[in-house]
Amino acid sequence: KRTGNAEISDSDAKAIAERLTQDVKLPPKTEYKLSDLNISKDNSSAALGAYKSALTILANELTAANKKDVAAGEDALSVVTMASETQNSSVLEKLNPIIARHQTLAKNLLSIKTPSTASEMHLHLTQSIEDLRAAMTGLQKIITDPIVGLAAITGYQKGAVDLYAAVDEYVKFFDTVNQ
User: Fold this and answer.
1) Which of 44, 57, 90, 94 is deepest in the core (most CB within 10 A)?
2) What whole-number distance in Å separates Cα of residue 9 and Cα of residue 117?
3) What does pTM read for this prediction?
4) SS3 string of 102-116?
């Protein structure tokens, strides 16, 4: 990237952005603990099957809603891009239903009866959903407070990576228990 007569590498630009945003106050998020989960000592095949079914229902609901958002061009990243390109902060209101969906999903994950063998994974999944929700709340400030918005982009990227890692943990877990 070129700025005036100086050239900045992508890694330098990223380092500068990280430095600018490291002390930024982002919207609050809940840091969940194992004690917040509905953990069961029942690790039987039936309990694991019921747990997997409950997760599948939630995952299918989220996937369907996300596909609908993407098809309409109203997924989180498209909304933020559109708002940034047009400098129209009212476009960011389209994030509200997505934020609410993630908040509801986290609440529903907390209520699922979770076999103790899956509790750490479940905590990771629930926290990644909460982290995405909080980051999207911060993304709503990309126009009015670009530093908070930039920090929220980093938080969103981290939340997405954490979510993919949590899903990968589940795939490996359920492959292991042959559900």
Assistant:
1) 94
2) 45
3) 0.84
4) HHHHHHHHHHCEEEH
